[in-house]
Specification:
By secondary structure, this protein is of the alpha+beta class. The chain has 3 domains: 78 residues, Ribosomal Protein S8, Chain: A, domain 1 (2-Layer Sandwich), CATH 3.30.1370; 76 residues, Alpha-Beta Plaits, CATH 3.30.70.330; 86 residues, Structural Genomics Hypothetical 15.5 Kd Protein In mrcA-pckA Intergenic Region, Chain A (Roll), CATH 3.10.290. It has 7 helices and 15 strands. The strands form 4 sheets. It has a 6-stranded antiparallel sheet. It has a 4-stranded antiparallel sheet with strand order 5-6-4-9, covered by helices on one side. Helix 2 packs across helix 3 and helix 6 packs across helix 7. The protein is globular.
Amino acid sequence: MDRSKIEKIAQSQEDRLLLAKLWDKINAGMNRNIPASTCFLSLREQELAKYLFGTPEGLHTFGGYEDAERKMLIYLPDYLDADALYAWDSPCVCLRASFFQGDSPNHRDFLGALMGAGIARETVGDICVGSGSCDFFVTAEIAPYLLQNFTSAGRTKLHLEQVSLREARIPEPEVKEIRDTVASLRLDSVIASGFRIGRSLAAQYIAAGKASLDGLPVEKPDRPVPEGAKISVRGLGKIRLTQVGGKTKKDRISVVIHRYV
C-alpha cells in the first residue's frame, strides 16, 4: 500500500481529504495489529478506497448485510475472523425503529429525520423500511445517542432498539426482470435495454454525465459492463446486469437485467 497514490486517485479536494482520513484510520490499525474502521462509504467512495488499498488480508467492506450499498472499511487483525463483523460490538450497528403499522414513513422520511437531528450522513449506512419497522445501520459511536434521542420520523413516533446484525430485516427490492438480447455489453447498449430507450438516447444520457457504473461516473458509451454491475442513470433510475448468457443465432448476447421499481 502506498499513501502517495492518493494524489493520483483523487478527483477533487474532497476526495483527497476523504482518502487521507481512510488511510490514517486503516493504516494505524494495521501497524498496531488492532481492529480499525471508517465511516460509511458510497459506492463511488468504495471504489476509490479499493484503488488506494487494494485487497490486503484482513480488510473488509461491510455494511451490515451481504448486499448492502453503503459500506464501511473494517480492518480485522489476524486473531479475529470474519464472524467479528457481525458481533454485538461490531463497528457497524443495526438499529430497529418500530412504529404503528397504520403509519407509512418512507426512506426519505427516515433519512430526513436523521439529518435534521444533526447526524452526519457518513455515520449512516443503508435504511431498510418495512411494514411496522425500519432497520437501519449506523456507526457504533453514534448508536447510543440515537437510542436515547431519535424518537420520530416526521409525524411518526418511533421506538428504537439495537438488534443483532444477523437478525436485520432486509426487504427484498422490487425489481422488474427484463430478458433481452444486446449487440454488445457496451454501457449504452445495456442502458438502452434496461430502460427500454433507444441506444442514441442512452448515449446522450451518458455524455451528459448522468450515468454511473457501480457508483463511479462514466462518460464513455463504449465502457464494457461486467455481469453483476449496477448502473444508475439520473432521471431514469437503477438497473443491474444480473446475468450474461450465450450468443444467439444472430450473434447477439442474451442478458437478464433487473430494473429497480
